[in-house]
Amino acid sequence: MQVTLTSSEGLKRDFTVVVDAAEIETKVTEKLITVGQQVKLPGFRPGKVPMAVLRKRFVRNVMGEILEETVNETSQKALNDNDLRPAQQPKIEITKFDEGEDLEFTIEVEIMPDFEAMDFSKLKLEKLVTDIDETKVDEAVEQIASQQKSFTKVAKNRKAKEGDALLIDYLGKVDGVAFDGGTAEGHQLELGSGQFIPGFEEQLVGKKGGDEVAVAITFPENYQSEELAGKEAVFDVTVHEVQEATTVEINDEFAKKLGMDGLENLKDAVRGRMEEEYGQHSRQTLKRNMLDALSENHDFEVPPGMKESEFNSIWEQFTKELERTNQKIEDQDQSEEELRAEYDTIAVRRVRLGLLLAEVGRLNNIEVSNEEVQQAMIAQARAFPGQEQQIFEMFQKNPEMQNSLRAPIFEDKVVDFIAELATVTEKKVSFEELTADPDAESEDKPAKKKPAAKKKATTAKKNADSEEKTPAKKKAAPKKDSAKKSEK
Contact, 94 vs 107, CB < 8 A? Predict the structure, then answer.
């Protein structure tokens, strides 16, 4: 085998590989002998089929197998002999492969950059923490109680107020023509719940059983249905009855209906969930601070292909969000060229941090066990009530989906490893400060900027900017009234 380096530029390497025809012929002959010992042909005893017959019948298939085996073996040997660690799967192109002639192919490969991780003991990180506010525990319990309330019919002449529920029929029209999903009968609508688009519920306050109302509204410009977005509509509404909410008394009996031993037990459960939520936010702020610090302390070239792939992923997410919200690139506060430049910088940062964390994990033997992936699969399945078994089996049968769980677990384990070596100080803050958008502008503190100058962020842009990349969890949507979808 002859390996020739034809190009070396940055992290890119190009090779030409030539495998001698005699070596190929030896492998073909050995493979045909193996085939001859197994195949059964009329007129020949097993293992006694002449080589000429075997070559005529099977050489095409054998050559294909030999090609694949030889390319895999020789390309890997070429990389090993040159002490190269590929950053991605090498691109291989066969340039010559005919029976009786040398095999020639090219290898295009991007290699891992050489870099040295900083001394993590020199990292100084701040971790935001907050105490449980008992008033928030009480508010959470009250919220649970509000979800348990029921409604009873009131006198027909009693006018509806916010907090009441109405039993209604409605028919929505645009330009006098009814549209799909704009009709319902016997729908219960709680006034002030925000179930329907702005302006709908407000026009029903003060109505009573038997009233017929023409509710005029305008669909938002970014409404999910392009056919209705920005359109004016009129809903013919018939109010059948007004219903008043019954107050749920928060006591031990209420808690027991929820499966708790008593009210204090319910509060303990709520407090536990809040502590878990606070802990997650606290961890995310620490991780964000760590990634910022690591980014500032490491500057090395990244493989162009990996950067391009990451950029394409960010840009696709951004454009899909624009499409979902009926926005256009021309409507943004930055030009497409500026946006691409900024996202290119973000892509480089993400790839560099990913390579750094992967290398730290490799050098310190940090691994993700099958048990950890199993637990993650169970957690994902539980997010789909009623479909747990199907979701779990789907993960079991799909290695790529399992890898999508393995990657964030590995990253978190590396983050924990670095945090153990770093100096971490805790800072007490309010829950609002803990959960605040780190990029949001405030009057007394300038907005934290991304690597490139940012102007006012749109929803689409902020989603694409997100540093945390975890698999999207799509929960099974409950079946809804088609009309409710239109108003929601």
Answer: no
Task: Indicate the average pLDDT of the chain.
Answer: 85
Regarding whether 292 and 156 lie in a shared domain, the answer is no
Joined tokens for residue 181: 């999903």
- Indicate if 287 and 430 belong to the same structural domain: yes
CB neighbours of 101 closer than 8 A, spacing ≥ 6?
Answer: 21
The pLDDT tens digits for 49-108 are: 788 888 888 877 888 888 888 888 888 888 888 888 998 889 999 998 887 788 899 999
Backbone torsions φ then ψ of 163, nearest 5 degrees: 105, -20
DSSP 239-260: EEEEEEEPPPP-SHHHHHHTT-
HSE-CB at 321 with a 13 A cutoff on CA atoms is 17
How far apart are the C-alpha atoms of 153 and 210, rounded to whole Å?
Answer: 13
Query: Which residue, 404, 408, 406, 418, is CA-closest to 292?
Result: 418
260 is a domain residue:
no
Of the pLDDT bands very low, low, confident and very high (cuts 50, 70, 90), residue 466 is: low
Place of tokens 């302390």: 297
* Interaxial angle between packed helices 336-363 and 399-421, expressed in degrees from 0 to 180 and rounded to the nearest 10: 80
* Domain match, 236 and 279 both: no
In terms of residue numbers, what domain contains 20? Answer: 2-110
Query: Of 438, 471, 473, 478, which Cα lies nearest the Cα of 457?
Result: 438
In whole angstroms, what separates CA 301 from the centre of its chain? Answer: 26
Q: How many other C-beta atoms are found inside a 10 Å radius of the C-beta of residue 96?
A: 10
Q: What is the CATH number for 404?
A: 1.10.3120.10
Is residue 117 within 8 Å of 35, Cβ to Cβ? no
In a domain, 275, yes or no: yes
Structure tokens at 171: 């028919």
What SS3 state is found at 325?
Answer: coil
Helix axes 370-382 and 388-397, enclosed angle (nearest 10): 140
- Where does the pLDDT of residue 34 fall: very low under 50, low under 70, confident under 90, or very high at 90 and above? confident
Quick check: 178 and 171 in contact, CB under 8 A?
A: yes
For residue 135, tell me if it sits in a domain: no
When divided into structural domains, the chain yields a total of: 3
For the chain, state the CA radius of gyration. 32
**For residue 150, what is the DSSP state?**
-
Q: How far apart are CA 112 and CA 100, in angstroms?
A: 37
165 in Cβ contact with 188 (< 8 Å): yes
- In a domain? residue 125: no
Residue 43 Cα to chain centre, angstroms = 61
